[in-house]
Amino acid sequence: MSRAPIQRLADRISAFFVPAVVAIAVVTFAIWLAVGSAPRLPVALERAVSVLIIACPCALGLATPMSITVGIGRGARSGVLIRNAAVVELLEQAKVLVIDKTGTLTEGRPRVAEVSAMEGVDRDNVLSLAASVARHSGHPLSRAIVTAAEERKIAVPPAENFESTAGGGVTGIVEGRAIRLGEQRFIEFDGQRIAQPLLDRAETLRKHGQTVTFVRAGDQAIGLLAISDPIRPSSRATIDALHRLGLKIVMLTGDNPTTAQVVAQSLAIDEFQAGLRPQEKYDEVALLRHGGQVVAMAGDGVNDAPSLAEADIGIAMGTGSDVAIETADVTLLHGDLRGITRAFLLSRAVMGNVRQNLFFAFVYNVVGIPIAAGLLYPLFGLVMSPAFAALAMSLSSVSVVTNSLRLHRARLD
Questions:
Q1: Which of 23, 26, 81, 368 lies at a 20 to 30 A Cα distance from 143?
Q2: pTM of the entire structure?
Q3: Is 100 tagged catalytic?
């Protein structure tokens, strides 16, 4: 039911085109009635009817919806589900792609690679306390922590008074102690500093591209968990392809700047910002849009949903959260990052096809109307019968439909 903005161009043209054609038909009738060959009235009427028939704007009405419909079907076969026709046109205009890191550029299957503890603290105890509060959260990092505890057969006591802070971490009461699990700012919320040995170890792990989550019991950080989430094999090729299409890539992530820098450098990303909360991601996308740029945003998590809604085009990974998928305009089946490139290539193919269709629709009318009016009669004695005008008008629609169907074979890789 949605309409691409370019469809409004056809509507505006039709608003002037139809009265103009009627006027041309009246003038044609009058001229042939005045100076035409006998019998003048039937001949004049025939010429006027020929003008009206050949100018029927059905091809103009088909030009955009046919291309959009075939193009969206072509995208679906390639794992790119488009929910809104306007998005097809916006994708062609986009110059900036904002992209999330975890679950988008990375595989989204994090695992605990290391557990470090302060001197005198058992590492299994650190993992146990972390899993206690993490199992109440649906965040991918939390699931990785719970899985690690289960694999190591570590007892996980129940947690009470669970709370989650978007972009920060989670808290709960475990065996009478207040447990906080999350990033550095979240752990140091009340001015309590994390011990330097833990910070040094965290920085070393981040330089290897790992995400660090700290564990605090009471008023002291007792350890950390290093969580690895490998970069998708298709990420570098996708970024390179998007660069060739002229897109600027901006990575926004809630992860630490050191980890984010490792990922950004390995993928040749143009710009990145790290340590962002969901609201801050939203603000960055809004800032880019207010700068006059058409912005596409790709993400997969609940925290990405506000940014996906704010962007001109929201692109969700099909393996991501339901909220992100529901918010986005485009969904990539199976979480295949190459689908982003396919979406942009599809948009360019469809919009090129739309312009070709509009050309076909207009060229028939530009050439056909003067001939139907009898312009060639004084020079060659040629006139166009209403039956031939009907055939020519039908061929214009056939041309538009046939050209649209070529999108079935459009290359998206």
A1: 81
A2: 0.82
A3: yes
